[in-house]
Write a structure and sequence with these properties.
Layout: H1 7-14, H2 20-33, E1 52-55, E2 58-60, H3 61-68, H4 72-79, E3 82-83, E4 86-91, E5 94-98, E6 105-107, H5 108-117, E7 121-124, H6 142-147, E8 152-153, E9 157-162, H7 168-176, E10 193-202, E11 205-215, H8 223-232, E12 235-241, H9 248-260, E13 264-269, H10 276-286, E14 297-299, H11 308-321, H12 323-330, E15 332-333, E16 339-349, E17 353-362, E18 365-366, E19 370-373, E20 376-384, E21 390-391, E22 393-394, E23 399-406, E24 418-421, H13 424-442, H14 448-477, H15 481-485, E25 502-508, H16 511-522, E26 527-534, H17 539-548, E27 551-555, H18 561-570, E28 574-577, H19 580-592
Parallel strand pairs: 1-7, 9-11, 9-12, 12-13, 13-14, 25-26, 25-27, 27-28
Antiparallel strand pairs: 2-6, 3-4, 4-5, 8-15, 10-11, 16-17, 16-24, 17-23, 18-22, 19-20, 19-24, 20-21, 20-23
Helix pairs in contact: 8-9, 16-19
């Protein structure tokens, strides 16, 4: 008989506690219906609180130790251990040797390795200025340009190239309505002349287009000067005389144009003294060069001005037909942006001091600006235009003469280098980096391969001179080869009295001409330069020449009365010439003179 239960008991009887088996069945059911598992929580990354030390491309080990607060001796042991009274460092496959700890310079990569081992954080501090693109800012509308007069377009830069005496300077004189050619020595251009000329109207602007022309020397000694002009130009005018045709420097100019990869216009000049058949023949020859197969050709006369209007129109059309060139020239340049340019020439001008001829790419340069160019840090003292007139500022696309006060210890003539206007403090940092780079390179130890090459070169030069001596003695004295071999000088050793080369001092009026002379002298096996300089002959030049027992050769420079007396008293030979080729001829004669 079933027991009687109440309502409460009935309810409790209906509720059955879950058993283990029921629990398992419930879990199995949930497995088939459960949602995707929740994503695991991301691990908490602790913030790196170590200080970050900014390190430039090169830094002295003493300064680096102070920066990361580590004993300098411990850093030296890590990277430049001492051996045989020298500190030896290896980096990137090269070996360096320093006499003192003060001389040890670390590249950034090596400093970073040290910092990593010491659990320090470093970051590269790039202070070196670099060129920006031509189109720094998008072109403004005409209304915006009128509202903001500070925005401007850059003038196109046109290099005028060709063989010597083919009429380049005469053409420039006609364009600028001047007469530079008559004042040039022997009618030869020996430096880069500059002129500005109005070309005509363009589709992109309501104002006429003004171009800056670079008249380059045509003599073969100025190859580098022509190449530099092509590298900085937007367009090249290749001038070829119709009565002479394509000559050596014409071909060199075409090669420079090909290397630069810029548009070119071929101008057949002197049509006023040439026949139509001569002009046809020149054009046919020019079409044989790859760089000139499709370029425009214009027949002109630089002397009479014949067809110069047509030439101006062709220049404007060529600029507009080149999308990349047109975009660069139509882009507005803000003067408050980076101020940069390229140094074309460095000269010492009497009464003005040191002068840099600079082609401005961007920005405005003015008095009191700090700048760096090569190994020079200076302050602008004045700015002159291409005609020598002092102006308040230089603008993009123009060439200006910058007279400056030198603040750096180096007197480098910075041809081919960039010209950058910077704050004074950053200019100092840039110069320090460049100086440290030079110091480190000077401490590099020659590799075994380099030492082998030096020994082989010394043996070759020694062998050549011994051979000359052998031939001379055999012909004069009838000595046999065995006797000559017994008198051979040890390899790599050159007697001071015999000398493989004759030392000279070279002075010039500008860095461009000095470089051209040096390029030629370097090809002379019997000449070596012990001193190069810009400006007139000084007492220091005479001291060096006297101590080295050598001659002084000067291009387009002067020697005052005091230096003349000093040179005569010390027996120093001084040769001055107004032309580069004349000076080179004198150096060649000096090389061939019999030695005492």
């Amino acid at each position: 008989m079933r027991p009687t239960v109440g309502v409460g008991a009935h309810v409790s009887a209906l509720w059955v506690p879950p058993t283990a088996g029921m629990a398992v069945r419930t879990l199995r059911t949930r497995r088939t219906r459960r949602a995707p598992p929740a994503m695991a929580a991301e691990p908490v990354v602790e913030e790196d609180t170590r200080p970050v030390h900014r390190v430039p491309a090169f830094i002295r080990i003493r300064d680096f130790a102070k920066l990361i607060k580590q004993p300098v001796d411990s850093l030296v042991k890590m990277v430049a251990p001492r051996s045989h009274k020298r500190f030896h460092m290896e980096f990137d496959g090269a070996k360096y040797e320093f006499k003192t700890i003060k001389q040890v310079v670390l590249p950034f990569e090596l400093a970073r390795e040290i910092a990593h081992k010491l659990n320090k954080r470093v970051q590269f501090d790039d202070v070196e200025p670099r060129f920006h693109g031509d189109a720094l800012r998008p072109r403004k509308t005409r209304q915006q340009q009128q509202e903001d007069q500070m925005w401007m377009r850059r003038n196109p830069v046109i290099a005028v190239m060709g063989h010597v005496d083919h009429g380049k300077t005469t053409l420039m004189d006609t364009l600028r309505q001047s007469n530079i050619a008559q004042f040039e020595v022997e009618g030869i251009t020996q430096k880069i002349n500059v002129c500005a000329a109005v070309l005509g109207q363009t589709q992109a602007s309501t104002s006429p287009l003004t171009a800056t022309f670079l008249d380059t020397p045509g003599h073969f000694h100025f190859f580098r000067m022509r190449t530099n002009a092509a590298q900085v130009a937007d367009l090249v005018l290749l001038i070829v005389a119709a009565d002479e045709g394509v000559l050596l420097q014409t071909e060199e100019s075409i090669g420079a144009i090909e290397d630069a990869g810029i548009p070119v216009i071929a101008c057949v000049n002197k049509v006023d003294v040439a026949t139509s058949e001569q002009c046809d023949a020149v054009e046919h020859d020019l079409r044989g060069y790859v760089a000139l197969q499709t370029c425009p050709m214009v027949r002109i006369s630089g002397r009479t001005g014949q067809h110069l209007d047509q030439l101006k129109d062709v220049i404007v059309q060529t600029i507009e037909a080149s999308p990349a060139l047109a975009q660069r020239l139509n882009a507005c340049v803000a003067p408050d942006g980076p101020i940069e340019g390229v140094v074309l020439e460095s000269v010492a001008v009497k009464g003005r001091g040191n002068v840099l001829r600079v082609l401005l790419k961007h920005g405005v340069v003015k008095k009191h600006d700090h700048f760096v160019a090569g190994m020079i840090h200076g302050v602008v003292r004045s700015v002159n235009n291409a005609d020598g007139e002092e102006i308040a500022k230089g603008v993009p696309g123009t060439v200006v003469d910058v007279m400056y006060k030198r603040l750096s210890k180096y007197m480098d003539a910075p041809i081919e280098f960039g010209f950058f206007v910077l704050p004074a403090e950053r200019a100092k940092q840039v110069m320090l980096q460049r100086e440290l780079k030079i110091e480190l390179e000077e401490k590099a130890v020659p590799t075994d391969e380099e030492m082998k090459e030096l020994r082989e070169l010394a043996e070759t030069e020694d062998g050549e001179e011994q051979g000359e001596r052998a031939n001379a003695r055999a012909s004069n004295d009838g000595m046999n080869n065995a006797a000559l071999k017994s008198e051979r000088v040890p390899a790599g050793f050159v007697e001071e009295t015999q000398g493989n080369t004759r030392p000279i001092v070279v002075k010039a009026d500008g860095a461009g001409s000095l470089t051209s002379i040096q390029d030629t002298v370097d090809e002379m096996t019997g000449i070596s330069t012990v001193r190069l300089g810009i400006g007139d002959i000084t007492t220091t030049d005479i001291d060096v020449a006297s101590n080295s027992r050598c001659a002084i050769f000067g291009f387009n420079v002067k020697m005052r009365r005091r230096e003349t007396k000093l040179a005569k008293a010390r027996g120093v030979r001084v040769v001055l010439r107004p032309t580069v080729h004349g000076l080179i001829d004198e150096i060649t004669k000096f090389e061939q003179e019999p030695r005492d």
